[in-house]
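User: Hi! I have a protein structure encoded as tokens and I'd like to know what sequence might fold into it. I'm fairly new to this, so please keep things simple.
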């Protein structure tokens, strides 16, 4: 059983509206939410083998805040994840080496939420919003990442910072 973790970046700041979207940092609320998620990850003994993170500043700052819970995960910051659609995210996951057992993707809506909906089917937990710093955990019952899809994947957890 493989695991896919989808983490939306924590809340970003709009304090400097002149900044390009890619360069917006975390807001104080986002920092608090990331700290809450990292405590949850530690309590759940969360240790993905690989982390794929968007190049956006708010995603990288989210990664920095949760790194203490990541163990020895390999980390790749990839430009193609910034603004990626669900289809693009799924294509990226399907290119993973089959010996990777679990992956955490730190990215953006609407792509992450749409990917979670596509993979988890009609999971009622995903029917509403996928807020900043939300973490979806999906179990994939397959041996080859190329086969990742809704027929072999189910939502096994959804954690929102407000739930912690």
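Assistant: Happy to help. Inverse folding works backwards from shape to sequence: for each of the 164 positions I chose a residue that suits the local structure. Here it is:
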């Amino acid at each position: 059983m493989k695991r896919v973790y989808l983490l939306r970046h924590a809340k970003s700041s709009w304090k400097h509206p002149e900044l390009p979207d890619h360069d917006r940092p975390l807001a104080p609320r986002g920092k608090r939410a990331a700290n809450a998620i990292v405590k949850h990850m530690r309590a759940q003994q969360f240790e993905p083998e690989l982390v794929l993170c968007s190049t956006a500043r708010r995603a990288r700052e989210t990664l920095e805040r949760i790194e203490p819970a990541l163990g020895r995960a390999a980390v790749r910051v990839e430009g193609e994840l910034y603004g990626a659609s669900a289809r693009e995210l799924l294509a990226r996951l399907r290119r993973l080496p089959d010996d990777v057992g679990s992956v955490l993707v730190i990215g953006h809506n609407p792509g992450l939420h749409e990917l979670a909906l596509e993979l988890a089917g009609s999971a009622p937990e995903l029917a509403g919003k996928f807020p900043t710093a939300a973490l979806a955990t999906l179990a994939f019952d397959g041996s080859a990442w190329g086969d990742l899809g809704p027929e072999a994947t189910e939502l096994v957890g959804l954690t929102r910072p407000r739930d912690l």
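A useful reference point when you look it over: Residues 2-163 form a domain with the Rossmann fold fold (CATH 3.40.50.1240). Feel free to ask if any position seems puzzling.
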